[in-house]
Amino acid sequence: MARARTPALVLGLLFLVLACGVGIWWYLHPQPGPLKLSRAAFSELDGWATANPQGALAAFQRSCATLAGKPDSEAMGTYGGTLADWRAPCAAAAKTDPAQARRFFEFWFQPVAVTAGRVQTGRFTGYFEPEIKGSRSKHGAYQVPVYAKPDDLIQVDLGAFRPTLQGERIAGRIDGAKLVPYPARADIEAHGLNAKILFYTDDPVELFFLHIQGSGRVTFDDGSTARVAYAAQNGQPYTAIGKTLIARGVPKNGMSLQVIRAWLKSHPADAAAVMNTDASYVFFAEQQLGDPRLGAKGAQGVALTPKASVAVDTRIHGLGTPFFVAGPAPLGRVLIAQDIGGAIRGVVRGDVYFGYGEQAEQQAGTMNQPGRFFALLPKPVVDRLTRAGTLK
To answer: Are 256 and 365 within 8 A, CB to CB?
Structure first.
C-alpha cells in the first residue's frame, strides 16, 4: 500500500512545484491589464526637477485654444473629467510667462500614475516630419502620385454611436446600401485611385515613410515648399514592416527606421512587396508651411511642438492632456497629447514628436524605449476621482 502511494505523492509534489513556478512567472511577468490610476507627487517623478517644461507650456496653450471652442460637457478621455474642469488651468496658462512653466504645472495639476493593471511601464517610440521631392506634373523621375482624400472615402467615429466605442474609428466606401472596406495599399498601388493627385514624387520608399509619419514637407522642382498634412486613412490595419523584414531574416536587434530604409533601397525588386504588407494607406492635404519651427497639425488640430507633443490612444486618453513621461533621455519631460497613430494602442503607449530635419529623423528612427505615464490632471478632477474610489 505504501508503494502505491509513492508515485501519487511524487506526482502531487511535481504538480505543486509546477504550480508554484507558474505563479512566480506570472507575478514576475505581469500582462497588461485595465486602466489603473494612482495618486502621485511631483517630488516622486524621476526627472521632474531637471525637466524643462517651457515647450510643453507653449504646446498646452495651443491645445487650450482649440478646447475653448468646445462645450463644457465634453469629456477629456475616460478619466480626465470634462472641459469645464480645464477652463481655469487654460485661462491661467494663457497668462503664464515661460520662465514660470514648472510652477504653473505644479500649482494647477496633480500627477496621477497611469498603469495597465500591474504593468507600470510601456513602450515609447518617436516620429518626425520627413521631406520629399515633388512636381506638379508627371515627368522624368516624378512618377509616383501623392493622393488627396478621395471623395468616396467615408470615415466613421463609432463613439458617436456607442459611448463604449469612444476613440474607435473605421473607414470605407459605400457599395449600394452598405459600407464596405476601402482598398488596401497593394490594391491602390496596383490599380490607382479615382482621387485628386496633389503632386508627383520621385521615390516610392520616401513616400512610404511619409505615410508612416503621417505628415511632412515637400520641396517642388520649382524651388517652392509646402506642408503635406494628414487628411485621412483608408481604414485598413497598420502593420509595421519591420516585422515583415524580421520574418525575412533581417536581425531583430537594432531594427530601426534607418535599417528599414536601407533594406528597401538595397532590395528594389522586393521593396514594393514588403511595403504592401502594410495595408494602411494615408491621404494628404497640401498646406502653407507656416511657422517652420512647428510641425503640421496633429489630430487635435494644433501644430505639433518638437519634443513636447505626443500621440496617444484616444480610446483612453483625452487630447490636450499633459503627461510627464518618466524614463531615460529623451524622455523625462512633459508632453501634451495632441495626436494619434495607427500603432499607438494601449494604456501606456506613446509616440513622441521630434520635429523636422536630420537630427529629428535620427532620434525618432531609433527611439524605442520603456517609460512611465503620469497624467497631470486638474486638482478638482483628482479629488473627484478619489471620492469615487477610482483613484488610489
So the answer is: yes
- Residue 221 CA to residue 133 CA, distance in Å, equals 7
The dihedral of CA 334, 338, 340, 346: what is its sign? positive
For 39-152, where are the alpha helices, taking DSSP H only? 54-67, 87-94, 101-108
Three-class secondary structure of residue 270 per DSSP: helix
Burial of 345 (0-12, 13-18, 19+ CB in 10 A): middle
Is the model more confident about 365 or about 17? 365
CB of 58 closer than 8 Å to CB of 99: no
On whether residue 249 sits in a domain, the answer given is: yes
Kindly state whether residue 327 falls inside one of the protein's structural domains.
no
The number of folded domains in the chain is 1
What is the residue range of 262's domain?
Answer: 240-277
- DSSP, collapsed to helix, strand or coil, labels residue 200 as strand
pTM of the entire predicted model? 0.84
pLDDT tens figures, 299-323: 999 999 999 999 999 999 999 999 9
- Given this model, what pLDDT does residue 29 score? 44
d(CA 226, CA 217): 6
The answer to whether residue 252 sits within a structural domain is yes
Q: Is the dihedral of CA 30, 32, 34, 39 positive or negative?
A: positive
Q: Which residue has the cell 524621476?
A: 46
Residue 56 makes CB contacts below 8 A (sequence gap 6+) with 101, 105, 305, 308, 322, 333, 334, 335, 336
Percent of the chain with pLDDT over 90: 85
Q: How many residues does the chain have?
A: 392
Q: Which of 390, 215, 205 is nearest to 311 (CA)?
A: 215
27-48 per-position pLDDT tens digit: 444 556 799 999 999 999 999 9
153 DSSP 8-state letter: -
The answer to the question of residue 217 being in a domain is no
Burial code of 361-372, b = ≥16 C-beta within 10 A, e = fewer? bbbbbbbeeebb
**Whether the predicted pLDDT of 216 surpasses 80:** yes
